[in-house]
Amino acid sequence: MNTEVGNLIYRGKAKDVYETDDPERVIIKFRDNITAGDGAKKENLKKKGFYNSIISTKFFKILEEAGVKTQYIELIKPGYMLSRKLKMIPLEIITRNIAAGSLLRNFPFEEKQEFKPPIIQMDYKNDEYHDPTLNDDIAVALGFVTREELKIIREITLKINSVLKDFLKSKGILFPDFKIEFGHDSQGNIVLGDEISPDSCRFWDSETWDVLDKDLFRKGESGVMEAYITVASRVLDDEDKKKWNLDI
Ligand SMILES: Nc1ncnc2c1ncn2[C@@H]1O[C@H](COP(=O)(O)OP(=O)(O)OP(=O)(O)O)[C@@H](O)[C@H]1O
Ligand SMILES: [Mg+2]
Fold first, then answer.
1. Is the distance from CB of 159 to CB of 196 less than 8 angstroms?
2. How do the domains of the chain map onto residue ranges?
3. Sheet containing 190-192: order of strands
4. Structure confidence by residue, pLDDT tens digits, 140-199
5. CA angle 213-218-221, nearest 5°?
6. Does residue 15 line the site of ligand 1, with CB under 6 A?
């Protein structure tokens, strides 16, 4: 496919959204910027955008095969994902299988406590308000989603969790938690957007419990890019690696 990168519509903290010649499609460019703490901590990690785009592509493909509607159309080249243009719902849907991060700071859970069934948490995606956790009533009152849509979002999220958790288990990776975003497509369907990568998920090695995600950056530890490459090398198959010329 020959898609031209058009005008920049939105520049986020780690990705850019570009127009294409089709009003229903955008190109999402995964950049090398990495941020934490509401953007307070910033750095550039060489090739992070490249790896996050191929990791996200793999997860979106697995989810599409399982019947989940996603933004994914094609990875034009590493870093550049041709996607369905969505009107994003300003909610961060967080699914938790094992207690970590802010859940431990805010509630008296035990470290590494397992949740069966998983916990689904919703944060209002708004930097000005520092992404507060909200509930269904607040989300509906804010007016960007209906109660029925929240039910659908919950169902799709549980499916995404079980599909990816099983896949990752087969690759020796635990899936403590992850954050996803949904939007409406031009027909009003709820579609999974954004990304699924070590920036937006916690991944731990199943044997050693070593951290393989952005937490390394949050904590100022070394080996961040190595961890992202480890995730890519485990989740990608040989065909993907050959296609993107990856010696990992
Ligand atoms: N398919 C899509 N169509 C339109 N916009 C999208 C789509 N997928 C994601 N987006 C939006 O694109 C932007 C991507 O930006 P990015 O993730 O870099 O930063 P951010 O969301 O502004 O900040 P952060 O995620 O770090 O809090 C987000 O606003 C996201 O909601
Ligand atoms: Mg984002």
1. no
2. 8-86+227-243, 88-205
3. 87-88, 182-184, 190-192
4. 999 999 999 999 999 999 999 999 999 999 999 999 999 999 999 999 999 999 999 999
5. 80
6. yes
* 80 within 8 A of 5, measured Cβ to Cβ: yes
Residue 5's φ and ψ, nearest 5 degrees, are: -80, 120
Q: Which fold has domain 88-205?
A: D-amino Acid Aminotransferase; Chain A, domain 1 (3.30.470)
- DSSP secondary structure code for residue 90 in this structure: S
pLDDT tens digits, residue range 195-231?
999 999 999 999 999 999 999 999 999 999 999 999 9
Question: Hey, which of 17, 33, 200 would you mutate to test ligand 1's pocket, going by the most ligand atoms within 8 Å of its Cβ?
Answer: 17
pLDDT of residue 1 exceeding 60 = no
What class, spelled out in words, does domain 8-86+227-243 have in CATH?
A: alpha beta
